[in-house]
Amino acid sequence: MSEQRIKSEHWTDDDGNPTGGITEGRGFTISWQNGPLGRGNDRREPNGAFVEGVIQAALDRLMFYQNTRFRCPANERAVGHLRNALRVLHIRTVDRELRGVEGTHNE
């Protein structure tokens, strides 16, 4: 498999919590969300990308290919895997919401 080289910096605070970072590769730069969004009245607007958004972008591109002459079974399988990844991450978010920890660094 031919993999694209990427350069990543993943940052943490003094407690080891994720606080953002940057991932770069040929043709893209991702600035990751820096810190939690908070809850209730303390909720902030996002300041960076989330994994779900990057997966959605890749899914969108593959769906574009599937509407061209480059449609193929391999793309369709990749689409299914990306959709499954989004489902799993959504379940994680719902679980965190139900426990009242979504938007925080609490586990």
Mean pLDDT: 95
Q: Can you tell me the number of structural domains?
A: 1
Helix tally equals 2
Shape: globular
What pattern of helices and strands is seen along the backbone? EEEHH
- Determine the structural class based on helices, strands and strand pairing: alpha+beta
Q: Can you describe this structure?
A:
This protein is an alpha+beta fold. It has one domain. Helix content is 39%, strand content 19%. A three-stranded antiparallel β-sheet has the order 1-2-3, with no helix packed on it. A hairpin with a 5-residue loop joins β1 and β2 (18-25). α1 (51-66) packs antiparallel against α2. The longest helix has 26 residues, at 73-98. The chain is globular, with a radius of gyration of 17 Å. The mean pLDDT is 95.
Give me the secondary-structure topology.
Elements: E1 6-12, E2 18-25, E3 28-32, H1 51-66, H2 73-98
Antiparallel strand pairs: 1-2, 2-3
In short:
This protein has helices at about 50-65, 75-100, and strands spanning about 5-10, 20-25, 30. The chain is of the alpha+beta class. The longest helix has 26 residues, at about 75-100.
Key words describing this protein structure:
single chain; 107 residues; alpha+beta; 3-stranded antiparallel sheet; 2 helices; 3 strands
